[in-house]
UniProtKB/TrEMBL annotation, chains A, B:
<feature type="domain" description="HTH lacI-type">
    <location>
        <begin position="6"/>
        <end position="60"/>
    </location>
</feature>
<dbReference type="InterPro" id="IPR028082">
    <property type="entry name" value="Peripla_BP_I"/>
</dbReference>
<dbReference type="GO" id="GO:0000976">
    <property type="term" value="F:transcription cis-regulatory region binding"/>
</dbReference>
<dbReference type="InterPro" id="IPR046335">
    <property type="entry name" value="LacI/GalR-like_sensor"/>
</dbReference>
<dbReference type="InterPro" id="IPR000843">
    <property type="entry name" value="HTH_LacI"/>
</dbReference>
<protein>
    <submittedName>
        <fullName>LacI family transcriptional regulator</fullName>
    </submittedName>
</protein>
<dbReference type="InterPro" id="IPR010982">
    <property type="entry name" value="Lambda_DNA-bd_dom_sf"/>
</dbReference>
<dbReference type="GO" id="GO:0003700">
    <property type="term" value="F:DNA-binding transcription factor activity"/>
</dbReference>
<keyword id="KW-0805">Transcription regulation</keyword>
<dbReference type="Pfam" id="PF00356">
    <property type="entry name" value="LacI"/>
</dbReference>
<dbReference type="Pfam" id="PF13377">
    <property type="entry name" value="Peripla_BP_3"/>
</dbReference>
<keyword id="KW-0804">Transcription</keyword>
<keyword id="KW-0238">DNA-binding</keyword>
DNA sequence: ATGAAAGCGCTAACAC
DNA sequence: GTGTTAGCGCTTTCAT
């Protein structure tokens, strides 16, 4: 631990200029006589002066920090988002104030309020009981969300869940599947639109969809739901899972139950988390562009902060990722 | 977006008291006549006053924020750390300023310096070219690191890598393996100690160890290294990987190469990431207590901030997790 | 128990 | 170009 950090005033005194001058120099707000410039440069690194960003923040009202709230940092879909956001933030000299809202006894709303005070804007991925959304609209700080929102006053970015689901269903139908099931998580905001996508596609082929639920949108949740789906008379020959985590859990349990995958049942996930590639059979899924979503969200945020009132929804296109967990029926 | 947030002064005026009084009330620094107390309480929530934490920070010099720097947010070992740290931080009304150092063109040192200015302390998990360590020692803010450090002036927490490695080796020897290999990542700070652990154990049984390297400590790295290990005359009958990610990649590629696991080769990883359970065969590994590490690191940090100069190394005990990727030779 | 006043370190508007 | 002067919103002695 070293001596007390020097302030702008220390520099001013040492260099025989005024604090204001030092400030302007440090921020490149103005040009200087090379005389002063040199003196300043020299003093600054002799003293090892570094601006105090906190003090700067109270003076300017800007923190150059973006708050990022996500549910579960263990879900690679979310870490993808954070990764993308982090990258863009760094490029623009912003930092990320992070909170995993799933981890707290406090309610989400409270957490967001706390976060909000320390940042210039909020990027939020949450279950969002809609009152949080109302709160965001009221907030003086800009927010960006994920998924298509009921109203467009809060900008958001999402991959088109309906289309993603439709694509998967189409793929499965093309593979001649007869009985398709969806293993969803009712607590998730995009559950319904995914069901619609699948349903619409199946309906256009004269097929129906059976829907099952997990209790948790995790691998463990998928494991626990498996037997309910597999150990019945007319079991499905394909199951579409709400996300990859669920799919992976489901596959493990199905195999433990003695089923052969994809021979006995085709399984597909959604998100395209990196691990999908490493399970057996490799998981067919649809890429929901997690990392890109984080990037775009941060770009939108920077836009808001720049005053562009560009609001609105940015739609990313999902992409089918065909691997080995699906196969043609006959 | 709503009206301007009210300040401590607005409250003071409305309630006919001085700003100082409001401050003391808000911070519970003092007791008040119930008269004033009620007036204050009423005005505060009528105005919806919330303290400005940034201004408070410049006045107090404390931010109630801890910086967390990790390399790769996609590695579940690291997200485990963040998760643990986040939980403890939240419990103590601290926030996490997060940066993924692997994501930036800027060097780590610079990133840390930036972070450092906005937080009360730093929790750092990094490749750390040791100059970063020197920097931390010099820094006026407390830091805590992961792993046993060359000197003890910076507190740190780690799972005993030597012991973890020893345990694994012992397990493999007990399973009658003849030719054991280590697939390491030389860039990692704990590579050497893990090698030592394995080596010492093997040596005590009169066995030797062959060491291979990956280029990246990721699943992809493991995949790429696989053929170098497997496609040789006297291939090993067991490989210990530097981490689970590598192990998972290795297994996938080995299977793609036509090998049967664990019949042809036993594979073991380190970390115990949640996914290890879901690959096939389920990965035998050793739990390095990621989440607990994050928690303990944060506790140590809080201790430092409380002035307890408790420094030193906290050692977590690794635990063998036996699954299906290893089997007895004969 | 309450108020007055002096900062915290920095920025920004204005003067010279 | 450079200096002066107010703040930013809050905390914290020190009086009263």
């Amino acid at each position: 631990m070293k001596k007390y950090p020097s302030t702008i005033r220390d520099v001013a005194v040492e260099a025989n200029v005024s604090p204001g001058t030092v400030s302007k120099f440090v921020n490149g707000t103005q040009r200087f006589s090379s005389e002063v410039e040199n003196r300043l440069r020299e003093t600054i690194d002799r003293l090892g002066y570094r601006p105090n960003v906190v003090a700067r923040s109270v003076a300017t009202g800007k923190t150059r920090t973006i708050g990022v709230a996500i549910l579960d940092i263990h879900n690679p879909h979310f870490t993808g988002i954070v990764k993308g956001a982090n990258r863009v933030a760094l490029q623009h000299d912003y930092s990320l104030l992070f909170v995993a809202t799933g981890e707290s006894q406090k309610n989400e709303r409270q957490l967001l309020e706390m976060l909000s005070r320390r940042v210039d804007g909020l990027i939020v991925s949450s279950r969002m009981p809609d009152d949080a959304l109302e709160w965001m609209r009221q907030s003086p700080k800009p927010s960006v969300c994920f998924g298509k929102l009921p109203d467009t006053s809060v900008p958001s970015v999402g991959a088109e869940g309906y289309r993603a689901a439709y694509l998967i269903a189409q793929h499965l139908v093309g593979l001649a599947h007869k009985r398709i099931a969806f293993l969803g998580f009712p607590g998730a905001r995009w559950n319904a639109e995914r069901i619609r996508g699948i349903h619409d596609c199946l309906a256009s082929h004269g097929k129906s969809l059976s829907v099952f639920d997990v209790e948790q949108p995790s691998a463990h949740g998928g494991e626990r739901a498996c037997s309910r789906i597999m150990l019945v008379a007319e079991r499905p020959d394909a199951v579409i899972c709400y996300n990859d985590l669920i799919a992976i859990g489901f596959m493990k349990e199905a195999q433990a139950l003695g089923f052969q995958l994809p021979k006995d049942i085709s399984v597909v996930g959604m998100d395209n988390i990196p691990f999908g590639e490493y399970v057996h059979p490799a998981l067919t899924t649809v890429d929901m562009q997690s990392e890109r979503m984080g990037e775009v969200a941060m770009f939108k945020m920077l836009d808001c902060l720049a005053g562009h009132t560009d609001k609105g929804f940015a739609m990313l296109q999902p992409e089918l990722v065909l691997r080995a967990s699906t196969m043609r029926r006959n």
